[in-house]
Amino acid sequence: MKKNITVAVTGLNAIDNPGPGIPVIRGLCDSKFFKPRIIGLAYENLEPGIYMKELVDKTYQIPYPSAGTENLMQRIEYIHSVEKINVLIPNFDAELYTFMKSEKRLAEIGINGKR
Q1: Going from the N-terminus, what domains does the chain have, and what CATH number goes with each?
Q2: Whole-angstrom Cα distance, residue 45 to residue 24?
Q3: Interval 74-83 mean pLDDT
Q4: DSSP state of 34
Q5: Cα–Cα distance, 10 to 40 (Å, whole number)
């Protein structure tokens, strides 16, 4: 029996210069070990991945990393309070510093891959 897991994924733009979020989601959905519930994290309301209902269960808009760590983390904390995220997968280089810097804070609220 597969475990249920909630995974938040960024990079939902699937245009000429696609973000890697959609291929990551497809890989997650192919897992033999868990059944993911996918939470899409989008920067723009026209990112095509938002509208791929067969892949993304729910989508939230988040601020760009340039808006500051605190703004992004407040939004992530709100989304987590609603969706109970187990794992967050950032897919853009510009996001990595902010999420790495926030690793302890994410773990404290339960976004750490543990169930």
Answers
A1: 3-109 (3.40.50.20)
A2: 20
A3: 97
A4: E
A5: 6
